Amino acid sequence: MELDTIDRIIDEYDGEDGILIQVLQDVQAEYNWLPKEALERVCERLGIPLTQAYSVASFYKAFSLVPRGRHIANVCMGTACHVRGAPRILEKVEDVLGIKACETTQDRRFSLERVNCLGCCALGPVMVIDGEAHGKLAVSGVEGILDGYE
Length: 150
Ligand code: FES
Description:
Layout: H1 3-11, H2 20-31, H3 36-46, H4 50-59, E1 71-76, H5 79-83, H6 86-97, E2 110-115, E3 127-129, E4 132-134, H7 142-147
Helix pairs in contact: 1-3, 2-3, 3-4
Bound molecules: FE2/S2 (inorganic) cluster (FES).
The site of FE2/S2 (inorganic) cluster has 12 residues, from helix 5.
């Protein structure tokens, strides 16, 4: 891990106070997760205990303490999507990627999550990849969609 990268991120805040969350967001944007070495460096530079960084990182769902894929696929399992076949969509995604929900592929290409309602129920069943919604999904279309993400 390049600790210079962490230093550069922190330096951009120019000694401001109360920047822990912003710094963690930037580190997460850089690596897609929060590696331990990065957290140690952040805490050393900000003069705060490591436990503080861990408690913030575990509190916010946007942060990940385990490696994540380059792409994040969220399959909606909310009621509206569920009745329109979401379980079969999830099964197909798991099958194509070779992982279960909450896991990341070996090559770090995808992380797979199940979520409860993405707020676009009329499009169900829905899967959102990197913020892009794919609606009215059919099992037969899943593989083609995933193939679109290198
Ligand atoms: S239940 Fe799936 S988007 Fe609302």
